[in-house]
Amino acid sequence: MRKYLFIVGVIAVALMSFQFNTTDNEPSNKVALGEKLFFDPILSSKKTISCASCHKPKLAFADTTQFSPGVDGILTDRNTPSAMNLAGRIHLFWDGRANSLEEQAIQPIISKTEMNLPIEEAIARLKEDKVYSRAFKRIYKSQPTEKLLGDALAAYQKNLETANTPYDRYINGDDSAMSASAIRGLLLFIGKANCANCHAGEDFTADRFKNIGLYDGKNLRDVGRSKITGDSTHVGHFKVPGLRNVAVTPPYMHNGMFKTLREVIEYYNKPDAVVKNGINRDLSLSTPLGLSAQEIADIEEFLKSLTDDRFKK
124, 179, 187, 289 - which has most CB atoms within 10 Å? Predict the structure, then answer.
């Protein structure tokens, strides 16, 4: 009955381990190689930052600043999303400009506002490094290439899956795993609040793009998906993010404008109270949800129940 009620179709996934720190040992497989690369500043122009500088492991591989500083201190245009639970995603980045983790992994390296390293130089550095040169030859039977670099980084990211949460234990039969408030929040999530319309599936995302009203052409001017597709109907559309570990990855939205989960829920409850003139806002947000203060608190508790045990502190 519980699984029937939860129409978003969550299926418990196998918990895969990952390390928070690399070792000095030479990597022996793709995942270990990707992990070493993820934490190595060799992939930034000044060798001062790594992938993990923005995707911090203890913060569910996200960042708690509105915008993260790149190698030259320039802030990113958008909030840093979590790099976890992405193995099944078909669109990456807020605007969906990458269709695979292998493709996505290269973009921060070459981005002028992030790691600012031309891919040719990145590959040259890896070839010149004895440890990496030996590792690529041993694992891939090849010298480092752009494709293999993306493959190794993606292999590590695909290993960053979590499913050890109060929610997962609850849907698998442990009635005591979630509080009464969180259980009420679950029912609101799939019912009155209509959250599951977008946040569906085992990672709570339908892999779609939505305009939730955070584009007004004046104060909020990031056009989102339309910059990639060239389609004017996509103005203000952004990728629906997954919600696993969402309680430990503030601030929220592509622009980091909401500092807390409570602010996010209150926005959805009454969007016009926050952004009065959101252009082409999705019709599902055309009228207030009518959530009470208690119902908002219950949904917040449910979202907290999606936190993997390793992040519960």
Answer: 289
Give the chain's radius of gyration (CA, Å).
Answer: 20
- CA 225 – CA 220 distance, rounded (Å): 14
Residue with tokens 């203060």: 293
Residue 42, φ and ψ in degrees, nearest 5: -60, -20
Number of neighbours of residue 280 by Cβ within 10 angstroms: 14
Helices (H) and strands (E) in the chain, counts: 12, 2
Q: What's the rounded Cα separation, in Å, for the pair 119 and 36?
A: 18
Q: List the one residue out of 52, 56, 77, 58 whose CA is nearest residue 66.
A: 77
112-146: buried (b, 16+ CB within 10 Å) or exposed (e) per residue? Answer: ebbbbbeeeebbebbeeeeebeebbeebbeeebee
> With 70 as the cut, is the pLDDT of residue 3 above it?
no
For the chain, the first-to-last Cα distance in angstroms comes to 32
Peptide bond into 69 cis (omega under 30): no
Distance CA 285, CA 187 (A): 19
Question: Could you report the per-residue pLDDT of 50-89, keeping only the tens digit for each?
Answer: 999 999 999 999 999 999 999 999 999 999 999 999 999 9
Q: Given pLDDT bands bounded at 50, 70 and 90, which one contains residue 16? A: very low
Phi-psi region of 147 (alpha: psi -120 to 50; beta: other; left: phi over 0): alpha
Q: Which residue has the tokens 């599902």?
A: 284
Q: Which two tokens stand for residue 149?
A: 């670099």
Torsion of CA 12, 207, 180, 266, to 10 degrees: 160
Rounded to the nearest 10 degrees, the angle between the axes of helix 130-140 and helix 146-157 is 80
How confident is the model over 184-201, as pLDDT tens digits?
A: 999 999 999 999 999 999
